[in-house]
TrEMBL record:
Catalysed reaction, written as an equation: 4-amino-2-methyl-5-(phosphooxymethyl)pyrimidine + ATP = 4-amino-2-methyl-5-(diphosphooxymethyl)pyrimidine + ADP; 4-amino-5-hydroxymethyl-2-methylpyrimidine + ATP = 4-amino-2-methyl-5-(phosphooxymethyl)pyrimidine + ADP + H(+)
GO terms, biological process: thiamine biosynthetic process
EC primary class: transferase
Gene Ontology MF: a single term: phosphomethylpyrimidine kinase activity
Family: Belongs to the ThiD family.
Pfam families, per database record: Phos_pyr_kin (PF08543)
Record flagged with keyword ATP-binding: yes
EC number(s) stated in the UniProt entry for this protein: 2.7.1.49, 2.7.4.7
Record-level GO cellular component terms: cytosol
Annotated NCBIfam families: HMP-P_kinase (TIGR00097)
The name this protein goes by in its record: Hydroxymethylpyrimidine/phosphomethylpyrimidine kinase
Domain of life: Bacteria
InterPro entries, per database record: HMP/HMP-P_kinase_dom, PM/HMP-P_kinase-1, Ribokinase-like
Length: 274
C-alpha cells in the first residue's frame, strides 16, 4: 500500500503579477492554502507591484495552446478559473481550449482593470468575453464596473446588483456573484449570489477600511475554484470563498507602498488560534 497522498487538482488560466499579490500568484497561494494542487496556464506577463502595472506582455497563442495540451495529457484537473486574458486573441485562444478539454467547472473572473486603473483587458475583448467565454462558465464573478460593462446597466446600489445578476444569467451564465467591493459608500461589502436553481442570497461582511485590497477578486474566485475541485457544491464553495477573502482582507499584512496584497494565511491562522 502506498503512503503517497493525493490532492485534488485545480487550474488557473491568468496573467502573472510580479508583485505576487494578484493574478496567477494570488490564485496559486489561495489554491495551496485550500489544500488543493494548483496548475497554471499563463496568458500574459505583467511587470506590476502594489503601486501599479508598469508593463504587460500577452503570450503567443501557440504557447497558450501548448500549456493546455500539456495539462490535458497528464493531469486530472477537477475545476478551473480564468483571470486576466488581455485581448481578443487571448480570450479566443482560451475559449478554444476550454471547448477542447474538460477541466471541470469553469469560474470566469472577468478581470478588466487593475486596482490602480491599468487596463488588463482590451475594450474590444469585452464583447468576446460576454458572447464566447461566459456561456462556458459554471460561475461568473464580476465586480461592479465589470458587471456594468457586461450588462450595460448602471449598478450603484444593492437593488441594481440583483438586476445585474439576473441580466448576467440571461447571457447564459449558470451561477453569478456580483461583488460589492466597489460600492464604497457602504459600511458593508456585500456580494449578491444568484444560482442556477433560482436560489439567491447575500454574502455579507463588514467593509474593512484599507487600501490593501490588491487581488481580492482573484482570491475569492480561486478559493471557490479550489473548493469546486474538492467536489463541494456551488453554494458551499461560494460561502467558503467569502470567508477566505474576508479573513485575508481583515487580517492584513504589510507588503509594498500602494494597494498591498492580502493575507492568504489568515483563515488557516484563525483556525489554529482558536
Ligand atoms: N474593503 C473591503 N472590506 C471587506 N471586503 C471587501 C473589501 N473590498 C472588497 N471586498 C470583498 O472582496 C471580494 C472581491 O470584491 P471586489 O474587490 O469588488 O473584486 P475585484 O477585486 O474583482 O475588484 C468581495 O467579496 C468583496 O465584497
Ligand atoms: C495579472 C493580474 N490579474 C488580475 C489583477 C486584478 O487584481 P486587482 O483588481 O485586485 O488589481 C491584476 N492586478 N493583475
Amino acid at each position: 500500500m502506498s503512503d503517497l497522498k493525493q490532492y485534488p487538482q485545480a487550474l488557473s488560466i491568468a496573467g502573472s503579477d510580479s508583485g505576487g499579490g494578484a493574478g496567477m500568484q494570488a490564485d496559486l497561494k489561495t489554491i495551496q492554502e485550500r489544500h488543493v494542487f494548483g496548475a497554471t496556464v499563463l496568458v500574459a506577463i505583467t511587470a506590476q507591484n502594489t503601486i501599479g502595472v508598469q508593463d504587460a506582455l500577452p503570450l503567443p497563442e501557440t504557447i497558450i495552446d501548448a500549456q493546455f495540451k500539456s495539462l490535458a495529457a497528464d493531469l486530472a484537473i477537477k475545476a478551473c478559473k480564468t483571470g486576466m486574458l488581455a485581448d481578443v486573441t487571448r480570450v479566443r485562444a482560451v475559449v478554444r481550449n476550454l471547448k477542447k478539454y474538460d477541466f471541470g467547472p469553469l469560474t470566469v473572473d472577468p478581470v478588466m482593470v487593475a486596482k490602480g486603473g491599468a487596463p488588463l483587458l482590451s475594450e474590444d475583448a469585452v464583447a468576446v468575453v460576454r458572447d464566447e467565454l461566459l456561456p462556458l462558465a459554471t460561475l461568473a464573478t464580476p465586480n461592479l464596473p465589470e458587471a456594468e460593462k457586461l450588462t450595460g446597466l448602471t449598478i450603484d446600489d444593492e437593488a441594481a446588483m440583483k438586476q445585474a445578476g439576473i441580466a448576467l444569467q440571461g447571457l447564459g451564465v449558470k451561477n453569478v456573484i456580483i461583488k460589492g467591493g466597489h460600492l464604497s459608500a457602504d459600511q458593508e461589502s456585500n456580494d449578491f449570489v444568484l444560482l442556477e436553481n433560482g436560489e439567491s442570497f447575500w454574502l455579507t461582511s463588514k467593509r474593512v477600511d484599507t487600501i490593501r485590497t490588491h487581488g481580492t477578486g482573484d482570491t475569492l474566485s480561486a478559493c471557490i475554484t479550489a473548493e469546486l475541485a474538492k467536489g463541494a457544491n456551488i453554494a458551499d464553495a461560494i460561502r467558503t470563498g467569502k470567508d477566505f477573502v474576508e479573513a485575508a482582507i481583515a487580517d492584513g499584512i504589510i507588503v509594498g507602498h500602494g494597494h498591498g496584497p492580502l493575507n492568504h494565511w489568515a483563515l488557516e491562522a484563525r483556525r489554529h488560534e482558536f
